[in-house]
Structure formats: structure tokens, C-alpha cells
């Protein structure tokens, strides 16, 4: 055995032995069954052993022996020896129901295949179960370990393939052709809570292991990688929702980010459904037998398997009412400052068709895009979202240059989606919450997800505990993109960004007060960041902690660090560097020091002062609480004009609240200024600090700003005021928020219960009863703990 991982109850194990063998390409061929709530079919994995690849530099090796071989017992099917014949006569879906081969040599008992029916799944992780002999020790067979849970695996077989050609179009055709080849021998396999383990008798090294295998499997209705639900129009749908277990309950895969692969997938569904997926092509349905259609997508840029995304539903595509010739020109190739964005020299990533080396792609301000939503939200999408897509994409290009991905789909997902947005290659999910109110929340969230195309996807974290490399960058860039999308003057942009910094500062202070110190650290593994075991397995600290989904520390501390660095360099210098960094590291995985070292090398000495990688690690990334440089900066700064105007409005409302019910006739009415959405959020946060607000004041507040019609960020603070002051007339606003804005409502459940007010607790329990069956699993778990 290789390494005793010893994960805590809330750590996520990454079991794949990526140090020995890597998946180069996945070919999925699946059918969607809404009645049974499963995906069913095959996946073909094409491998390359690591001794033919360059080892990742800087990784440390750890070794230890396991205490038990119990997890490595195998079924022993009779091997088949099917000669490779004309592949056109073999379907990848033919006959897998005829096999009854399960993980421990038993017959298939529909759900007892050894990977979830044991108490360890619920109570924690038994370390001896996660240690398998995956290397070559004497006469033992090589063991392939894949990340896998909540799947029924029926059969694993070798696929007889020859070498894959280098040319990409040829290569993908070849992968598709080979994936249809008949099997040439069943392989031994076993499953445990977190992995699928496969070996071939007599194959003692990774080099001897088959170059391609086919796995026949199905997902399970309760699988944690996908959500089966109904959309806002009441029609069935399914989508991947950024689960803590990533995609291992959708298909067996190598989850560690170092396992960069390409993929292609064919998904069959009833002809009335639309299949959206991470893919470079804007797929159209191919009609199959009566009432069925298939959709085919592919990706040629190697990506971690965790970034694969799918959504199947009765989505309607939104079309712009008018498409001007200027818009079409932007999609083709506008060239504002072409030379700034050209990638000089050869890219540093593994070979793939790279847009940074394509002159027409480097000047493409607006990539082709489609917008989808449930039928009942078409009007809201047409009015709020669709007009923002072009300006936000163009703004992103003006800041960072070449779009890493050739096209984009945007989907408004069901109400139970647990966040405001999620970015994956070629597709963005947005919550319905961004469609209500003015376009501010929709625009900022769209900009945030667009930023992930560069930071989080094209450039990924080599160690998933360094989330700030994705979320900190996206949070910092969303403000810059949004200011450019609105075409704000420099002073206006500065004012809005300073106001946003005020709000995030308040939020960060709340976060460090309310969450454990160990979860506030941006680089928790410190000097061991990026290290894996000898086999490549590792654990993600707190990866399964349900509260982690709702934390914003990595967003906020990362944002403030980047803001601090940008201020030190000056915006022009900083963003010129950022473009250079993107050109250098796109298509690669990085650690914090890769970014910081390159940044410091590009800072003139007079601006560097006391900055060093070590100091930044110490002050910002490896300590809990508020970083000292940030504390110092916030104490010294002056309020921006937008925040000062909010302060003046707060004083007016305090005066209104102090007035007696019966006022003198001559007393003048207060005149309130019109406020921007972020100003409204700050106003309500200040008013939340007041000990009491009377019902008359709250009623006037709601009427003055039409609070029930504002965006979700404003309405969230309004609901907090309602709860704090037990303003019963507006409890309907709280109930509506908990049901329609599930991505943001978790905190409110806690407020309703902490009050110990019987009526408020009744509101919380009633809303939970109405939504719990559809609610995201992590959200439901956290709320249930609050309520019961």
C-alpha cells in the first residue's frame, strides 16, 4: 500500500493514482432517463503512463504501508478474447445488461456494488479503506485507481486500440472510432466508498496496462454530482451543480487537477429536451428513433475532469431582437490594440489548438454565445441578461485580451441552484436571483463568471486548497469588467469600486468572526501545498464540510490581496502584468508562488519595498483573521463620495425613526436621495446596526426604495431588517426570499431560529418544508441542523 491518507470527517479524498498513469481522453456515451433519474451507458478512457510523461516538478513523495488489503479484493470474471473486427458492427451500448459482474464477485443487486452501502459514507472515512497497492511490487498486478462514488459499475473491459495520431481533428475522430471497438477481455474491478479499482492479470506496470478501457455503468438517483429537479416552469431537468464530490458520481475519472484531459460526449434524451455541456461546438440534436435525439460535444483543450458540466432540460434559447452589423463585426475580429494581446513565442502548456496562437482569435472581442432559460423566464432574460452579454464579454477582452474559449452558453438554472453562478468551460450557470431588480447584480455576477474563463479554467490551481487563485481573481476582476461594460468615466469607476470595497470589508469582518480560524487560511497546507503521495492521491482539507460552500473568505481575502498589489503597482502596470501572466500560464496549473514570484520580478525596485513571497505568505495566505496590511490600509483610508452620501441618508432615517407618531404640522418631510444598488445595501447594513426601528419607519423604508422589487443583495438585507425587528407585515417578503432565492437564503434561516420567536421559527420551518425536497443537498443539511 502506498499512503495512509488519514482524512478528517470533512476532508475530500482524491484517490486516483495519477503519478503512475493519466487519462488523456474520455469518450462518454450516455442516455438520460428522467423516470429513473439516472444516466446510463459507457465511458471509454484512453491512457498514457506517467513514465512517458514529464513528472510534475516540486512534488514531494511520501510513503507508508497500509494496514489492510481488504479494499483490494476483486471479482474474477471469465476473460473474453474478442478479436477486433469491423468496428462499425459494434455499438458501445450493446448488451451491457446481460452482464452481472459486481465489485465483490456477487450478482448485481441494484445498489449493493460496494461503493455506498456502508456506514463509513455517513459517519466518516476509515483510512485503511483508502490505501491500495497501486505500484509494481514483485509479481503483483498494477492497480488503476479512479475516483468514483454513487455509481453502479456493471462491467470493465479492455478496448483494443492502436496508437492515436497527433493531428487533433484526426485524433478526435480516431478516439470516437476506437471507443466503438469491441472489447478484448474483461478486467477485474472493485469499488469502495470513494474509488473504482481496476487491474488486468499479468499487467505488472502502468506501461503494461491497457491503453484504453470501457466501463459500463449507471449513476444513481441520489448521486451527489448531479441534481434531478424541476425547472421554474415545472418541467423535469438535471444538471451538475458544482458538488463537493465534483464529477465522480457522474462518471469514473481522475479528479486531481494534475490529470488534465480532453473529452467528447454523446448524450441521448427525449427529443423535447435540450442538452447543454462543456464543449467547443454549439451542438445541434441528431434525431434517433422516434421521440429520441442525441447531442454530441467535444473539448480539445486539456482540462481537469472536475470542470466537465452538463445540463439537460426543456430550455428555451433567447435570441437578441436586433443584431447590428457592429455586433457581428465584434464577434468576428475587432482590433483595438492587437499587438498588446498577441502571445509572443511558444506557449508553455501541453499541445492543443490554442486560441492564443490564432491571430483571428486574439482580436475577437465578443465570442459567439447562446442564452438559455426555462420558458417562464424568457421575458426576464430578454430584458435583463441578454443585453449585458456582449458588453461584458467585450470588457473582459479589453482587460485581459484573448478569450481562452471559443464560444459560450449561459443557462438560468433552477431555483435550487446553491450559488449565484458557476463557470465551466464554454458554459456559465446563473441563478434566477440575478434577473430581479436592476441589471447591477446580473452584470456583476456575469462579469465574475466570465473572469473564471481566465482564472479558474484556463489557469487552474494545482492544489485545490488554494481557491483564492480562482475566486480572488474573479472577484477583483468583476469590478473592473463591470465598470468597462457600463462605460464609466475613471472617477465614476473608482467611486463604485471603493464602495464595493467598503461592502466587502464589512463582509470579511463578519466572516472572520463567524467561522473557525482554520477555515480562514488561504494556503492551509503551507509548505506542503501542491504535494501529493507517491501514487498521486491526496486529500482536500474541509472539502466535504457543508458550511464551506457558503464561506466567502477565499473570495474576500484573495480580492483584498490583489487590490493591495494593484494599488502598490498602479492599475496600468498591474493589468499589463496580468496580461503577460495570462500569456505565460494559460493552459497550465499554478501555485500561489508562481503568480507572486512573476509579479515581484515585474515590480520596479522602488515600488517593491518590503514585498516578498515570504511576507505575502505570512501576512495574507497562511494566517487566519484580517491580514495586518489590510487592517492598516482600512484604518488610514477616507470614505468615498458614494459612501458619504449613504451616511447622510442614514442620519435622515435615524431622525425619522426618532420622531413621535404625532408630528407637528410645520415639521418638514425628509427628502431622500436616489441610491445605487450597492448604496442601498450599505444603507441597510448601517440601519441593521440600529437597536430599534419602529414599524412606521420600516414601512416608509420599503415604500421609499421599493425594496421588495430590488435585486437579491438588497432584498437579503431588507429581510434581515424584517427579522431583527419582527416586522410581521413584511414576513411575506422573507418567505418569498427563502423560496425563490435559495442561493442566498441560508443565513436567514439561522436568523429566524436564533430569535427564539415562535412565529419566526414557524416561518422558517414552513419554508423549509416547501423547499427541502428540491433544495441542494448541502444547503438542506445545513438548514436542517439549524431547525431541528
UniProtKB/TrEMBL annotation:
Cofactor: Zn(2+)
Family: Belongs to the peptidase M1 family.
Name of the protein this chain belongs to: Aminopeptidase O
PANTHER family: AMINOPEPTIDASE O
Gene3D superfamilies xrefs: 3.30.2010.30, Neutral Protease Domain 2, Peptidase M1, leukotriene A4 hydrolase/aminopeptidase C-terminal domain, tricorn interacting facor f3 domain
Example of a GO cellular component annotation carried by this entry: nucleolus
Main localization (coarse): nucleus
Function: Aminopeptidase which catalyzes the hydrolysis of amino acid residues from the N-terminus of peptide or protein substrates.
Domain of life per record: Eukaryota
MF (Gene Ontology): metalloaminopeptidase activity; zinc ion binding
Keyword Metal-binding: yes
GO biological process, one term: proteolysis
Cell compartment(s), UniProt: Nucleus, Nucleolus
SMART domains tied to this protein: Leuk-A4-hydro_C
Alphabetic keyword roster: Aminopeptidase, Hydrolase, Metal-binding, Metalloprotease, Nucleus, Protease, Zinc
Peptidase M1 leukotriene A4 hydrolase/aminopeptidase C-terminal domain location: 641-787
